[in-house]
Specification:
The chain is an alpha/beta fold and 215 residues long. The chain has helices at 2-17, 60-72, 89-102, 134-142, 164-171, 192-202; strands at 31-36, 75-79, 120-126, 149-156, 176-177, 181-184. The protein has one domain: 3-Layer(aba) Sandwich (Rossmann fold). The termini are far apart.
Length: 215
Amino acid sequence: MRKLHLRTVATLLFLSGVGLIAGTAYAEDRILTVYFSRVGTSRSFAGVDAVSSASLPSGNTIVIANMIHEAVGGDMFQIVTVTPYPAAYRDTTDLALKEQQDKARPRLATHVKKMGDYDVIFLGYPDWWGTLPMPLFTFLTEYDFSGKTIIPFCTHEGSGLGSSERDIARLCPNAKLLDGLAVRGSSVDGAQKTVQNWLAGLGYGSAKKTKSPTP
């Protein structure tokens, strides 16, 4: 009986040590934070690196992506379309609606070279017309996400995550989808605590920063 008890304790300690207890992140997870933003993918910002340019005002989604990346480590990747979106915001939203109605799949200019090397994908985007921007549909059908964990986050002005979680689940039926985060665009600059609490609830509150392969 004593041997069985000690074996049980040892097993629990082992599971705790490698982060396998329910609700915690795997310490060895290879993480990629993917985001789509008008900044860096519209004619207003043609040829500008949205991550490295210090003089460029960050888009709302980029701000949240940076907060997540700072907390969990890994790599970052921006989805950029071959054809830039219009410079004017209203023209972009009009085009986005037409793309949605047409079920368009805009061609992408950037690609993850080694998606198979990642276990967890934080996926960020602005809510466009109640769901994912159509370039995200292209992205999610470009790779095999079987066995991977997808964690969505979006910025919005009242629609929240809309139907984006359902659309991700439909496009990636063999992936594990965790609860997403929606942050109102006007609140992103003060969203650090919100992001931290969300990550902690997913088990990434104190996740070890890991060096992942270059995307």
